[in-house]
Amino acid sequence: MSDKVYDVPSQWAQKAYVDDAHYQSMYAASVNDPNAFWGEHGKRIDWFTPYTKVKNTSYDPGHVSIKWFEDGVTNVAYNCVDRHLETRGDQVAIIWEGDSPDESRKITYRELSAEVNKLANVLRNRGVEKGDRVTIYLPMIPEAAFAMLACARLGAIHSIVFGGFSPDSLGGRIADCGSKVVITADEGLRGGRKVPLKANVDAAVNQIEGGVDHVIVVRRTGGKVDMTPGRDVYYDEAAAMVTDECPAEPMNAEDPLFILYTSGSTGKPKGVLHTTGGYLVYASMTHQYVFDYHPGDIYWCTADVGWVTGHSYIVYGPLANGATTLMFEGIPNYPSVSRFWDVIDKHQVSIFYTAPTAIRSLMQAGEEPVKRTSRASLRLLGSVGEPINPEAWEWYYHVVGEGRCPIVDTWWQTETGGILITPLPGATKLKPGSATRPFFGVQPEVVDAAGAVQEGACEGNLVIADSWPGQMRTVYGDHERFEQTYFSTYPGKYFTGDGCRRDADGFYWITGRVDDVINVSGHRMGTAEVESALVAHPKVSEAAVVGFPHDIKGQGIYAYVTLMDGVEPTEELRKELVAWVRREIGPIASPDLIQFAPGLPKTRSGKIMRRILRKIAEDQFESLGDTSTLADPGVVEDLISNRQNKR
Ligand code: 6R9
């Protein structure tokens, strides 16, 4: 924890959309009369039929229902593209920076319109209609944005799967939402290395009964891939056959826009469903106010479109605002650790939004790779994905931003659709490590384990007391799971799964997940998913997975594995298990440490006591807490003496 405070610079208070007084009055208005507040701000997007109703939401147990602007009709692609054509058709919408510094491309709003319409027509010719699901498994190339917007234009629901997921994970996600169409590329390119995307799609689709009807393949590397006749088509060949005009489907505000799978504490990943009107209003409004986006800014969010940050803050929020958004295919340390800063200079980026894990890894390389670049164009920095430790915050502020650029530490989730707790750069003083205050309309509360609401400075679990327009509406195909996961722990409130502290100024400090979700380099991972991958291995009898503090990744994955009788615990088997998990889920789930354990600490009723495993992984041997309920207290000593060390 840091007790440093950085006041709002006076130029920022004067020039930004809101200063502190303005924030206070807008915030009060937003929570005192949400209907009036959002009724007004809902107009920031264009509606084909204006709404007459604003908020219709209930968190009541058994009847959770969330509707915003429910009788309005609009289209997200229309708002992100068409409505800008008259005023800024020739302005750059997307700057694409390739994996190699020699490759980049600029796409104006007019060009974006033509590209989106062509892709929409290619889908339409293959029978895609309003309500159909389309899976997108693409690298960070402009076609990923075209594909999202093409789906939105037709009213099809996209489900993007991050290119780092394995064929198994991809197949599960295609099957869960019943996509009949997959959009992919021959190969991806990251840090000079190729990613076999089309081959992964083939393997994924082979596991699905009935397969899929169409696989559309964008040529990225030109690498040779297998094409199944009748099912697979190269995008450029299909696009050559269609026009660049395609009408935008009128969509009800509550019609689904996308599904995005995310990890929870139990079971398989959930299909988080977001809808049309409220989501776009919220994504665009937060993008404008949090980043203080003004026309002329060059805005860069380094996330991948496979995560929610890419959805809301590379594509939908910025494009709805008519911004110039930069899309980066590569990685922070290729071809050198100056890459981020080189790209900022090359494209004159003014707003830069990245993750603590990237900052920490670049920080290790020292100041010189930063200082050899100018970064004079920068005026605002942002952070997202996990708590940012004060050391990384200070380095980001002083070295990258040269003390000139406020940092917005934005707390939010896949489920929330947009940023919920964040500084506003002209209004909020900054405290390194604190996400500070709620955005308009957001009512955070801190509760204790029993659900009692805490007042003043306190610590506990973070809940949100009422709905905001960007909130997820359901788990795709499983509304009961939605209610169970988010509204049953503290009935009548949305439970975030995060712990937090609130200080005397009313500032929030997110302390991390309180459930069995771990956050590895800003990527969410359910410990149960990694465990089930491990126990699927024929030599593994049991597995328990916990997070442990990791200098760069924030958290690393620590797996305790009990082998089948008679299996030798060898170094080779350890490597085999790591490779196995990579294959089953994807590289982001690779265990950092595997400890072979003859037994796991269990209660007499057979529950694994993860609290103890967590403490051992954290090297906190003295604070294991009560071990008296263990069926066999002896296993703990063995676990401690065989603790694996960070390598
Ligand atoms: C946007 C995104 C959500 C979880 C969330 C929390 C952690 C995200 C944070 C943060 C502290 C921040 N998280 N931003 N923790 N400070 N600024 O990351 O969505 O992938 O769903 O992860 O990430 O634990 O609950 P998602």
From TrEMBL:
Family: Belongs to the ATP-dependent AMP-binding enzyme family.
Official protein name in the record: Acetyl-coenzyme A synthetase
Domain Acetyl-coenzyme A synthetase N-terminal: 23-80
Species the sequence originates in: Xanthobacter flavus
Gene3D superfamilies: 3.30.300.30, N-terminal domain of ligase-like
Catalytic activity: acetate + ATP + CoA = acetyl-CoA + AMP + diphosphate
Positions of transmembrane segments: none
Record PROSITE patterns: AMP_BINDING
